[in-house]
Amino acid sequence: MTSKTNLSNQQLAALFEELADLLELSGENAFRIRAYRSGAAAIAGLPQRVEELLAQGFDLTSVDGIGATLAEKSKIAIQTGSIPALEKIRQEVPTTLRDVMKVPGLGAKKAMKLHQELGVMDLASLKQACLQGSVADLKGFGPKTQQSILQNIDIVAQAAERLGIDDADRLTQRLKGHFSQCKAVKRLDFAGSYRRSKETVGDLDMLVVSQSPSEVMDRFAEFPGIAEVLARGDTKMSVRIAGAFQVDLRVVEESCWGAALQYFTGSKEHNVHVRSLAKSLGLKISEYGVFRETEPSVAIAGKDEESLYRAIGMPWVPPELRENRFEFQKDLEHRLEHLIQLSDIRGDLHMHTDSTDGSETLDAMANAAIERGLEYIAITDHSKRVSIARGLNDQQVQEQWAYIDRIKPELEGRLMLLKGIECDILEDGSLDLSDDSLAKADWVTASIHFGFKQSRQEITDRILGAIAHRSVHSISHPSGRLISRRPAYEFDLTAVIQAAKEHGKCLEINANPARLDLNDLQAAAAAQAGVMIVINTDAHSIGNLDLMKYGLGVARRAGIMKHQVLNTKSAKQLADWLGKHK
Ligand code: DGT
Ligand code: CA
Ligand code: CA
Ligand code: ZN
Q: Is the CB of 266 under 6 A from ligand 1?
């Protein structure tokens, strides 16, 4: 079979995703839609291009999730670049409605109703309809729904443009792998917001040192995920990956590496300040190096970043701090000396097991923690209110803790295993488990999973009540947001910080990249107020224990120092701390 379309697996998967969305909008039966979705996921996960597989005579239906219909449509797509069924339905349903159906709280049915009744075509016309108040008048919607749609539109619009830090991370790994065999590449790194560990990344900025830029660009063009080459010059190239995501490549000289890396790492605000400092010293900093204004052709620094910062009298600034927040303040040296790093983390105080919605047994989680060199963990399964996760009631949690007491001796000297619980803060402000139960725990973290639509005051009061409860040690994912999917509930962060400080309770940075909650600014405010921070993975599987690094990204962006984080303490120190916080 020959093909002229050069369709990547991501592009092919995107076609099936679109088909599934449009079918859902048109009211097609759920079974067919699910088949296309799982097919799309299966195709996106294939290690080799579908085109190559077909050329080798590989039978696509042997892949889990790909049936005969999907295999046949894939063949046609590889040959023609599209799928006839998709072409047909695009005539009937505007494809821009896909964004509308993804607004939290809407879905396909409501999106279609908005289309049919109000002529909504896309996010822009949806926003307009909300602002005009016509959504509130529609049967089944109302003013409250209209209000929440308005809030959620921006989140969806942003999600379409930005990649989560973990997705960006995976993409950098694939790109590194792709270039590992390319001899023309002497050095490769990623700059921009990715290097600064922002929670989402607008585009990836890749820097390469090479003597032969064209060879590097040729190799770049062969990257399997590429949908389109947007621009290619002598040393610059931009491509579009899968959906809408962009990767910029710049090839630089070895002698400019530090200056280029510094320039393209940003942030823009940081760089503006760096350059004004340089100017006050009679220096000029560009992506090519540091120059004396009197001698603009000879670089005096810039081969590495250290030399660039030294030239303006500064220590090297970790990328996460380059946001013009803390790095130009007088206490920089002190902050740098103590800035928290991943190796400071000695335990993890939020994780789930298969007793609720985790995928592993308690023993497996404990062993995985030991393998990762953690000194202690708290098992914090859900409480009963989270019924979809089979949350534990008073009796079940006692049973789990009795089990922990039984296996503790075996773990002695290897892992301190804490009897914990993630206890829901109920809608009425009470806690989901009895005071008697909670008093028997080693570690109680309280969190909100329901009642997001309550007023700012009600939600604030719920959290304040939990903070004041004598058995609670910490509040988990305090804002309740899901990045690019659900906004935080409304609450008074300042009041929460103050109460946590007063009662000596912790606030969590939840390291799960879908949450990162508290975020960097909130965590900075809490730490500056003197609140103890705890950084937890909220692991639901063994692999999730490795998400800690994303929480560290947030903490470092917040300028947080080691002593401000509870789980940098040794097991002994933590036991002492818990003893004092009974
Ligand atoms: P993003 O991609 O939106 O998540 O954020 P960044 O920070 O990665 O921004 P991006 O990709 O536009 O640019 C990467 C860095 O390059 C940016 O942080 C600073 C530097 N940079 C790019 N363009 C300009 C510019 O026009 N002026 C200045 N001062 N710096 C720039
Ligand atoms: Ca960028
Ligand atoms: Ca860029
Ligand atoms: Zn949890």
A: yes
